[in-house]
């Protein structure tokens, strides 16, 4: 597996603004093209000719072909994309943790771009953008109708150029423009600290090129501060994913050597693979970045915190630690992006990102459209959930592929909870103060983190009110 990984280049997994997705760079094979459907190609040629000759104004031929390819690919599923020269460059930049833009992690909600989180210190952060803000326009372009990749493309640009974002802030029921000057964004994907003596907290916000090295150095520093750490919280909330090697490595830091971390399966031979807790499967630079980690990390009691924003690589880590009974997974059901996208270069400057496989946890569970169900359900706040059920998950996306493990059931209770949350949000928006924003992760006000500490200390944990109510309703119905 290690040799295969090195030959393939590198693999990435993910879902958000940095365009992080599962990827393997491979040249498109020559001389192995599938037979082409002649009649359908004749129809395509006829439409191309009519548009060229009859459209109200002249159109660019190259743009027509590019749009045709993009339409063909986007019709497959939400994660397959054709990259033109500019978007391919941005995609590759996203895996390094450096890009030129405004500095926000984003998702989609009701056809609009939603700010998941402004990156600390970025232009968007300094401009006052907040989690939950909806972007309705980018310069003069309405966001409604754009794909996530198209929106990202419009927000990216050259350093020191300006972009005007029109923001709708639900909490204040108002719309306003914000002018932001683009600059190079350097994201910090690992944060760590001792919450209190004996208890460590490490947050991984994305799996980027330097994440494993940063993780190893920060964990070593924590053990230097306190060699007797007796509880460890790995925080993967709102982590959209990133490099697959990073997910395998972070899992391997806590697991016995050579156990299975994740497997993939698809139609082609290259998509059938198993990744283990072994340097050969996660080290691209030839040296094991985990070799200097303290031995105690393999046995320290630990909790993994997840939520609806935990996707792809973070789901791989949570699933591996859960299946091997190495950690207690706490929070809410994760996003459910368990598909593999392979990036095949078409030309030097263009590429196709296409879904080629599904991810499976060590026990064989498909992550796709299901996600990881926590061992202990925890609400966002002591008062319960407000925003969690409103977040989009993989199963909510149009044209998403199924798990391949049985029929996909509609979660009627989740739909009911979404309606109740929307109503509650509307009522809160009418009040003078508006809905209370969620506290910053890692603070004393971080309710799920406090419950994770309680679990590690053997104290009572306040489990999710919503899940308790649902279980009671299910029992009553039965």
From TrEMBL:
<dbReference type="InterPro" id="IPR029045">
    <property type="entry name" value="ClpP/crotonase-like_dom_sf"/>
</dbReference>
<keyword id="KW-0645">Protease</keyword>
<keyword id="KW-0378">Hydrolase</keyword>
<dbReference type="GO" id="GO:0007165">
    <property type="term" value="P:signal transduction"/>
</dbReference>
<dbReference type="Pfam" id="PF17820">
    <property type="entry name" value="PDZ_6"/>
</dbReference>
<feature type="signal peptide">
    <location>
        <begin position="1"/>
        <end position="27"/>
    </location>
</feature>
<dbReference type="GO" id="GO:0004175">
    <property type="term" value="F:endopeptidase activity"/>
</dbReference>
<dbReference type="InterPro" id="IPR004447">
    <property type="entry name" value="Peptidase_S41A"/>
</dbReference>
<comment type="similarity">
    <text>Belongs to the peptidase S41A family.</text>
</comment>
<dbReference type="Pfam" id="PF03572">
    <property type="entry name" value="Peptidase_S41"/>
</dbReference>
<protein>
    <submittedName>
        <fullName>S41 family peptidase</fullName>
    </submittedName>
</protein>
<keyword id="KW-0720">Serine protease</keyword>
<feature type="compositionally biased region" description="Basic and acidic residues">
    <location>
        <begin position="467"/>
        <end position="478"/>
    </location>
</feature>
<dbReference type="InterPro" id="IPR001478">
    <property type="entry name" value="PDZ"/>
</dbReference>
<dbReference type="InterPro" id="IPR041489">
    <property type="entry name" value="PDZ_6"/>
</dbReference>
<dbReference type="Pfam" id="PF22694">
    <property type="entry name" value="CtpB_N-like"/>
</dbReference>
<feature type="compositionally biased region" description="Basic and acidic residues">
    <location>
        <begin position="402"/>
        <end position="435"/>
    </location>
</feature>
<dbReference type="InterPro" id="IPR055210">
    <property type="entry name" value="CtpA/B_N"/>
</dbReference>
<dbReference type="GO" id="GO:0008236">
    <property type="term" value="F:serine-type peptidase activity"/>
</dbReference>
<dbReference type="InterPro" id="IPR005151">
    <property type="entry name" value="Tail-specific_protease"/>
</dbReference>
<keyword id="KW-0732">Signal</keyword>
<feature type="region of interest" description="Disordered">
    <location>
        <begin position="402"/>
        <end position="478"/>
    </location>
</feature>
<dbReference type="GO" id="GO:0030288">
    <property type="term" value="C:outer membrane-bounded periplasmic space"/>
</dbReference>
<dbReference type="InterPro" id="IPR036034">
    <property type="entry name" value="PDZ_sf"/>
</dbReference>
<feature type="domain" description="PDZ">
    <location>
        <begin position="88"/>
        <end position="170"/>
    </location>
</feature>
<dbReference type="GO" id="GO:0006508">
    <property type="term" value="P:proteolysis"/>
</dbReference>
